[in-house]
């Protein structure tokens, strides 16, 4: 029986750098089973490098990374396969193969991990994941160039879900989406977390996403995770970046939006303008 406080990702003493530039120095982070962990920080603070280190695309200078309680650093490709099968990744922008159709893109991990799978079953799984990601069923034969930005993200999500992962990595999934598309993507992420019991590592600059769907938030600054918790818990830390981020005009607008939505649910106030418009577009 899985434990709610079971550690799914554990990063300790992580150090990353490029040439003279040190990106992480003594970074620690724990992600628990079933939570959506939002990862925020100013541009260039190393959010993507952190994700790449966890999934084995970046070899750290030092530190310890465990996923599903398996040590990841210096693990050979063959040894890592059993762990890699258990996660899905949506890279920034979707990272679809432009010469493959949506369905073929979704089948890439299936071909990699189960090369002998019956092609008819592969087609069936791909079709199911396309619909599960909120795309119309006829999106399967389309090429990425025929899709809108939001559809590309959903196609990337369908590919990330191909292997029925327990853990999902999302790198800025709502960047570049219009407010309605971004809110819809958030809802989809939340419903996948709930229905599939997913653990989600979600890099974002989108304050609305943080308020709407994240269970906890990790803040990267000063080459470390300077705080992890809910928004009120982070605000209590009194760090200047945290105060500026959550208490600045965009942060206040997002708070007001969440409060208004709560009031609306309780039927205690009238509708005002959706503030999502004012809180997007912050990516660096
Ligand atoms: N392969 C690389 N070679 C050299 N420097 C790199 C490489 N990858 C990342 N960096 C540097 O590491 C730092 C952190 O990059 P990263 O992409 O993780 O930032 P980020 O927090 O995700 O930023 P953003 O919010 O703008 O996406 C940046 O200064 C970047 O230039």
- Give the total of beta strands: 10
Q: Taking strands numbered 1, 2, ... along the chain, how are they ordered across the largest sheet?
A: 6-7-8-3-9-10
* Shape summary: globular
Oligomeric state, counting identical vs distinct chains: single chain
Bound molecules: adenosine-5'-triphosphate
Low-confidence stretches: 270-284
SSE pattern:
EEEHEEHEHHHEHEHEEHHHH
Tell me about the largest β-sheet.
6 strands, mixed
SS-derived structural category: alpha/beta
Radius of gyration: 19 Å
- β-strand percent reads 15-25%
Q: State the end-to-end CA separation.
A: 41 Å
Measured as a percent range, the helix fraction is 40-55%
- The total of helices stands at 11
GO molecular function, one term: ATP hydrolysis activity
Keywords: ATP-binding, Nucleotide-binding, Transport
Biased composition (Polar residues): 269-284
InterPro entries: AAA+_ATPase, ABC_transporter-like_ATP-bd, ABC_transporter-like_CS, P-loop_NTPase
How would you describe this protein?
The structure is a single chain. With 284 residues, the chain is of the alpha/beta class. Helices cover 40% and strands 23% of the residues. It contains 11 helices and 10 strands. The protein has helices at 47-54, 77-84, 102-113, 119-132, 149-160, 179-196, 207-213, 231-235, 240-247, 249-266, 276-279; strands at residues 7-18, 21-32, 36-41, 62-67, 70-71, 87-90, 167-171, 199-203, 216-221, 224-229. The chain has a 6-stranded mixed β-sheet, sandwiched between helices. The chain has a 4-stranded antiparallel β-sheet with strand order 2-1-4-5, with helices on one face. It is globular. The protein starts with 6 loop residues before the first strand and ends in a 5-residue tail after the last helix. Adenosine-5'-triphosphate is lined by residues 18, 23, 41, 43-49, 284. Residues 261-284 are annotated as: Disordered.
